[in-house]
Every structure is written in structure tokens, then in C-alpha cells.
From TrEMBL, chain A:
<keyword id="KW-1133">Transmembrane helix</keyword>
<keyword id="KW-0472">Membrane</keyword>
<dbReference type="GO" id="GO:0022857">
    <property type="term" value="F:transmembrane transporter activity"/>
</dbReference>
<dbReference type="InterPro" id="IPR001851">
    <property type="entry name" value="ABC_transp_permease"/>
</dbReference>
<dbReference type="GO" id="GO:0005886">
    <property type="term" value="C:plasma membrane"/>
</dbReference>
<feature type="transmembrane region" description="Helical">
    <location>
        <begin position="158"/>
        <end position="179"/>
    </location>
</feature>
<protein>
    <submittedName>
        <fullName>Urea ABC transporter permease subunit UrtB</fullName>
    </submittedName>
</protein>
<feature type="transmembrane region" description="Helical">
    <location>
        <begin position="77"/>
        <end position="97"/>
    </location>
</feature>
<keyword id="KW-1003">Cell membrane</keyword>
Automatic annotation (TrEMBL), chain B:
<dbReference type="InterPro" id="IPR028082">
    <property type="entry name" value="Peripla_BP_I"/>
</dbReference>
<dbReference type="InterPro" id="IPR006311">
    <property type="entry name" value="TAT_signal"/>
</dbReference>
<dbReference type="Pfam" id="PF13433">
    <property type="entry name" value="Peripla_BP_5"/>
</dbReference>
<protein>
    <submittedName>
        <fullName>ABC transporter substrate-binding protein</fullName>
    </submittedName>
</protein>
<dbReference type="InterPro" id="IPR017777">
    <property type="entry name" value="ABC_urea-bd_UrtA"/>
</dbReference>
<keyword id="KW-0732">Signal</keyword>
<feature type="signal peptide">
    <location>
        <begin position="1"/>
        <end position="36"/>
    </location>
</feature>
Amino acid sequence: MFGDYSIGDLGSIFVMQGFAGLILFSVYVLMALGLAIIFGQMGVINMAHGEFMILGAYVTWMTSSLFQSYLPSLFSGYFFLAMILAFIASGALGMLVEWGLIRHLYKRPLDTLLATWGLSLILQQTYRSVFGAREVGVELPQWMLGSLKVTDSIEVPINGVFVMGLTVLITIVVSYVLYKSRWGRQVRAVVQNRIMAGAVGINTEKVDRYTFGLGCGIAGVAGSAFTMIGSTGPTSGQLYIVDTFLVVVFGGAASLLGTIASAFSISQTQSTLEFFTSGSMAKVLTLLAVVGILMLRPQGLFALKVRK
Amino acid sequence: MSDEPNRGLQSPLRRKLLMGAAALPLVSILPRPSFGAGPATATVNTTGLAVTDTEVTVGILHSATGTMAISETGSIQAEKLAIEQINAAGGVLGRKIKFIQEDGASDWPTFAEKAKKLLVNDKVAAIMGCWTSASRKAVLPVMEQYNGMLYYPTFYEGLEQSKNVIYTGQEATQQILAGLNWIAKEKGAKSFFFIGSDYIWPRTSNKIARKHVENVLKGKVVGEEYYALGSTQFNSVINKIKLTKPDVIFTDVVGGSNVAFYKQLKAAGVDLSKQALLTISVTEDEIDGIGGENIAGAYACMKYFQSLDNANNKTFVPAFKKLWGEKTVIGDVTQAAYLGPWLWKLTVEKAGSFDIDKIAAASAGVEFKDAPEGYVRIHENHHLWSKTRVGRAKLDGQFELIFETADLIEPDPFPKGYQ
């Protein structure tokens, strides 16, 4: 395969391929973080995760259209505002859903699967009725397009670097919130023992609502960021849901570190295999590896040690 | 359709209905074509189809919900426009076309079920419908068993021919070969990189393209890659493209993947004004989602572009926009869907009958001179003779016509030497 190419060519391709793997890693982490909180911390199987992401994408699209019409001079910076709005919109919808639907189902985790799946269908059809069945094109500011030329033959996509930066930032914020802040301690307390947490004066209902909202809000930010690399349509959320669950389950449901480790191993395996075999074969081999490992380690890569 | 006799309208609804009825005489003053002047129903409908002296019913069967709604919405719009125009022009054999719309919901068994419902319960005289090959394959046995007539709009992989289907889109050789010939001649292209979504249409199309590149153009295929439907990550394959430096990237990626592919190609610094890219799966509809700035410069090879400069198209595009909004765009399949009702009308009038067998027999040779793409004619194999065109994508999401074949290309669903 490599006989015909010079050493220099191969070197730069391997560097770019390394970046491709890292970008895939950031994309996986970003889409899985929200679910890791909701599924990992709360045990809610949220099948509508993709639709919360797409809400963020639609918010981004609306923001970009508004800026184009009313504030064209500030267009280059609209994306940051769009991400914040996406977080607020998805988070608010998440809290509403938690209040109206999820809180009645905490004792029946498997029913959340059906309920949120129904919710995802409802949301898809709502998007279709409101925004139309066709995909919308989100226009990006000029500086986000194109690539950085590192050397003559090595080019790194700017949007990839942006997603990487965003992922690092959000991961840091989330781990700080969950593991260092007072509120995070309350979340973990409720997860470990709801009754005791209530007994020591934690408002468990409120904690649940904000946790779910946070997870959905992060999904919204992810959706907003993915307008740079993917499509925005009523059913685009479905494109992400399988990979998202794969990453979270493989990592071990209750562990943030596990999610990151699993995103890293899956993305690196996949992008390496994609390069040496082909797209669909890489997917098959990756899934086979994940299934194999989960058979040996059903709890996932990292699992909290709990007393049974 | 209720079988119950009218019970005298004793509901509060009655007043509203009466008020509505008062407005009826006003409506009937408006000039409208009169229906019912055609030949007697008993002579034009011997098999019990839904044909009365004044009306004939057809079915529209597309996905209005689910993942394929993105693509099929345009087809539904085009078919409704065609039916409206035919009715305004006096209908078919003096009968007004009424349509029953069913939703295939992007689910292939649902398509088959709804097709059966349309044929068995509604007795429709024809069905305009299906989009993906999978939905057509699901519907085909139903059409053949209950002897219906399907007008299928999408460009597809070929290898099929049925008495009960008229294929108004192009089959693969019709669409691909002329485009490959053009790019080989124009750009001196020798090496090709194929990338497609992983299902029957891209795989069959690429098989045909590979044979043509290797045997006819004496070129080389330096890579052939498939990604699962819905994939959103293409950085690895883009690196492979950069490594192999093909003269032409030949793509048939579909759906949401399309958007991801072109955005990432642009982000990876592949400049489509320098790197030739020929796609057979991106129409104006898809560019709406991809964004003109991400695909400007790419070549697309199909039979229709919204920007075509001919008299038919100049009346078709404004009529479409008037009905469906200024912002709608019209892609290749939308235009092909528009042909369906018209070809059916012309065939019925040629046969002088709504009977399926007579329509199937009369189809070959039916010409439609007002087609937005220009002139089309139905071949004996129930596909259309049509021209193939190459367009270059512009920033505004439209295509600029670069090349069109001089003659109509013969449809060849079972191409020898390409299987």
C-alpha cells in the first residue's frame, strides 16, 4: 500500500491521521458527556439525547440567521452566543421534560427507555413541522472554515481544533462541577443513596432536575458545535445516538473518566482501522472489539466499586 | 368516506355548513374546467379502478415522516403541482384527478402495506411514489400481484424492469457514463477515488463506474470506500484521498453523511476549484443542507438542474415556487417526480383507457415535450430517454450547466459488460 509514496508524504499523512483520531475522540467525548451525566449519574436511559443535541443545532441555525439579517457586523462572533443559547434552550427543555416525564419514572429505569424513545419521535416530528423536513444549512463565520497549514503538507482542520478546545473546556468544567463543587457533592450523594441524601436535607427533586438539565444543556452545546461537521435536520440526532451509548456503556456507566477512556480507545481504533481497511470494515471491527470486551467485562472499562 | 346516510346535520356544525353552503354559488361562478365530458366510464375502465364519469383517483406514496422525508418532500410537492396543472388543463380523458396521499414513513414494509391499501381498497388508477430503491423493491411485488402502475422518480442502480413500473429518473449507466467521459476528456483524468454510502445504489453505481474507468477510459481506480449510512466522520478517508492524490474524487454519499463529508472536506483544506470532484448524489436539495460555500466548485452529473435555460423550465420553476414558496429549490428527483403524472396522463390518452394492461402496453414511445428537463420519451424497457448533464456547484447553491450530451441517451437497465 505504501510502496509508491515518499517518506515525507507518509510522515505528514500519519500526523494528519493522528489529528483525525484526536478530532474523532473529541467529538465522541463531547456527545457522550451529557449522556454520561444523565445515564451514568441518574440511571436514566435517555433515547432522546440526539434530539436535545439537534435542538442546540437548530438554535445555532436561528442565531446565525438572526445575525445575518440584523447584526451582520458581529457575524464572525455569533457562534459563541449561539452555544450559550443552545445550552440554555436544551437545558430548559431538559428540565421541563424531567418535571413532566422523567421524575415519575425513577423507580422504573427500563420504562425511561420507552418514554424517552417516544419523546424522541415527538421531538423529531416537532422539528419537522416547525423547521421543515429538509435539512438546514448553518452558515459559519469565515474564520472557522478551512484549515491551518502547519507545514507544506500537514494541514489541520480549524473546526476540528475548535471542537477539541471546546471538549477540553467542557470536560474541565463538568468534572469541576461534579467533583469539586458543593452541588456536585449533592448530586453524587443523591446517586449513591437517595433516601439518606434526602434525610440530611438535600432537596433531591431539585438536584435531579438540575442534573438532567445540565446533561441536556451539554448535549445542546455538542449539537451546536456539530453544525460545523455534520448535518442539521429533524432526524440528524439519530446519527449520534448509537455511538453515544456505545461510548458511555463501554466506559462504564457511572464513571466520567471511563467515558473519556472509552471515547479515546474507540476513536483511535476506528480511525486507525479506517485508514488501513475501509470505512464500513472499520466500523464492523470496532463494534466486534467492543462486544468482545464487554463480554469479558460487562461493567465496562471503569466501574465504581459498590457494595452489593 | 362514511357509508351512513346523512342524518340531517343536527349538530352545531350544521350552522357552519349552511354558512359554507351559502358561499358555494360564488365559487361556482369562477371559471373552471368542466369535467365529465370524456368517453363513457364503462369503455375506459374495464377493470374496476376508481374512475367515475367526472373523477379519477391516483395515489401518492412517499415518506412525509421519518428520515427520508428530507428527500421525498420535494417529490410530493412536484407531483401535487403536476396534478393541479393537469386538472387546470382539463384533466385526463375529461376527468379530474383526485389523489389519495399515503405516508410510507421511511419504513419499507409500510410502503408495501400502503401500496396494497391504495391498490386493493382505493383502486387507484396509478401510484406516484417511492424514493429509495429499498422502498421500490418492497412495493414491486405488490404492484405486480395486484396489477398496479407505479411512476418511480429517483435515479437508481438499474438491474430492474417491470411491466408495472415506469422509471422517470435515470438508471445508473445513463447517469454515470457520460459524466465520466466528460471529466476524463475535459480534465484528462486518469485516476479516480470512489467514496459512497454503504448500500445497493452506491455499490452498483461504483461497480459500473469502475468497469468504465478501467475498460473504456483506461484509467485507474486508486481507492474505493464505503461508509455506513449516517456516518458523520470522514477525516480518515479524506487523508487517504490526500495521500493518493486522485485526479477525480467520485462520490455517491447520501443523506446526512453528505453534509458531514463536504464540510470536513472543506475544513481539511481540499479546494474543489483545484481538486476535481464528481458527484452523482448531490442535487440542489442536498446543497441546502450542505451549504453552498462547502461544495462550490464540485461537479454533479445528472439530468436536470434548476438553472436549466429552456422555455419549459422557465415556466416550471416559477409555477413550483408560486405553489411551494420562493425559497424552495428543485433538484433532479423533484423534476423527475413532476414527470410522473404527466406521463401517466399522456399514456392514458394515447391508450384511450385507464386499464393498467393497456397503459403498460401503450407506454413505449410516449413523448412529453413540456418536460422541464427538455424532451423525454418512454423506452420499451419503461425507462426514459433523456440527456445527461454536468453542472458545477456555485456559492448560491445552484448549479451552472457546464456540459450536456448532444443526444438523448438510451436507458440500459441491464448493461452488458458492466455487471
